[in-house]
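User: Thanks for the earlier help. One more: RNA_ligase domain-containing protein. Can you show the sequence and predicted structure together?

Assistant: Of course, both are below.
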Amino acid sequence: MERLKKAFVNSVEPANFIICFWDSSTSSAAADIVPFEQDPNIAFKLRNYWTEEQLVWRRFDKFKWLLVRCPIERDEVKWAEWEQEAAWHLPWQWCRIEINLNDSDISDDG
């Protein structure tokens, strides 16, 4: 994540996106959603004034995290709708790429 943050802060070209990460290891008992303002070690918000964008990593709900790169000044209603759509698990969404990885799929064994 640190490389991603550094790349964002040093970027000079704007690129807007919303990426939804689903944490299947989170049990229904593990529960409390903590706003990023209260837990800066996990979630974050960075600003890049060259591109006039912000990069936000935050918990969306109990199972999902969003990584959002968007304008600093944005239409909050429109972006909230897009974030909601990004978090939905609908395979027929036309502007969606889905990648599923299990922990066993990722290793250091080269």
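User: Great, one quick takeaway?

Assistant: Residues 41 and 57 are 11 Å apart (CA to CA).
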